[in-house]
Design a protein that fits this description.
CATH topology: Elongation Factor Tu (Ef-tu), domain 3
Oligomer: single chain
CATH superfamily: Aminomethyltransferase beta-barrel domains
Structural class: mainly beta
Length: 146
């Protein structure tokens, strides 16, 4: 359920991510000291091409996603130079009837609806995925508060 709701957990909170990467940059106060405020001011943490947490669903809904897959553009060779990010967590969603995943993608928040490849060379998988919101189910919390 945490993946369906887009909740970041251990795989996403790996010591290399900031509130900006998780889409929560506005929650870090600029006026008072808080955990993460110093880190959030560093230039490298505020790059235009920063990785952002987004959701992924397979274009072919019958294909399962795998954590650890790396993202590359559709017609690009799967090499380190072309790496755009990685899939952090996956699950089968009974509500949606297919596999879903969370992951970090360069400029992910600006690429909603785009298609990229999720490549896992260890498992010999190369799957086209659509970039979507990390909040698959009840993004506004209406069901929660009903």
């Amino acid at each position: 359920m945490r993946i369906e709701k887009g909740h970041a957990a251990g795989n996403e909170l790996n010591g290399q991510t900031t509130a900006l990467n998780l889409g929560m940059g506005r929650m870090v106060s600029k006026k008072k000291d808080s955990i993460g405020s110093t880190l959030s001011e560093r230039p490298e943490m505020n790059r235009d091409d920063a990785i952002k947490l987004v959701g992924f669903r397979p274009v072919d809904r019958n294909q399962p996603l795998t954590a650890g897959a790396h993202f590359v553009e559709r017609r690009t060779e799967a090499t380190t130079e072309h790496d755009l990010g990685w899939m952090t967590s996956v699950a089968y969603s009974p509500s949606l009837g297919h596999s879903i995943g969370l992951g970090f993608l360069q400029r992910g928040d600006q690429r909603m609806g785009d298609i990229v490849r999720a490549v896992n060379l260890i498992r010999d998988q190369d799957i086209e995925v659509e970039i979507v919101s990390a909040h698959f189910i009840d993004p506004d919390g209406e069901r929660l508060r009903a």
